[in-house]
């Protein structure tokens, strides 16, 4: 297109110079031809500049089209990325809920296991304590022997609340040893309210 414009302008310029030269002397002069050549040179230079500018504009247009396509692709990529992030968040939440349930189940199993172990440990401790207590307790020897050396006459006494073997002996004027022997009491502290005792020599 620029070449067509160039040739049209050159033709017009040439016709103008020729018309001017013919009107004055009938033949173009050397000066006019020189001017024509200079005009042609300038015109050629200008056309070249315009052609370079046109090529630059075309390159810029091409770059803009490429950037526009890249921007559209980038926008699509960002949208896809957002969708992927949303999917990932949903997957994470679902996984977290499943993991929470599984963790609670594991904790429950562990607590139950620990409870059984604790109960077993307490049972073992209780058995060991009982065994240690039995080992530390004095071994009961043969049944206590009682003497028949006590008065065979006396009174019967019913144990009352607050009584002890010593207090009964004081009340009746008897001896504690005689009361133990007569009633075959291995432990003086194990008399009971309402129990009837024979008090040797008692009054």
Describe this structure in words.
- The structure is a single chain.
- Among the domains are: 2-72; 154-200, LysM domain (Membrane-bound Lytic Murein Transglycosylase D, Chain A, Roll), CATH 3.10.350.10.
- It is built from 4 helices and 2 strands.
- The chain has helices spanning 2-24, 30-136, 165-172, 176-183, and strands spanning 154-158, 196-200.
- A two-stranded antiparallel ribbon has the order 1-2.
- Residues 21-26 and 137-142 have low confidence and may be disordered.
Task: Walk me through the topology.
Layout: H1 2-24, H2 30-136, E1 154-158, H3 165-172, H4 176-183, E2 196-200
Antiparallel strand pairs: 1-2
Outline of this structure?
By secondary structure, this protein is mostly helical.
Structural descriptors:
Membrane-bound Lytic Murein Transglycosylase D, Chain A; mainly alpha; two-stranded antiparallel ribbon; 203 residues; single chain
Please state the overall shape, judged from the principal axes of the Cα atoms: rod-shaped
**Class by alpha and beta content:** mainly alpha
What is the helix fraction of residues, given as a range? over 70%
Straight-line distance between termini: 159 Å
Low-confidence stretches: 21-26, 137-142
List the secondary-structure elements in sequence, H or E. HHEHHE
Radius of gyration: 67 Å
Mean of all residue-level pLDDT scores: 78
Number of helices: 4
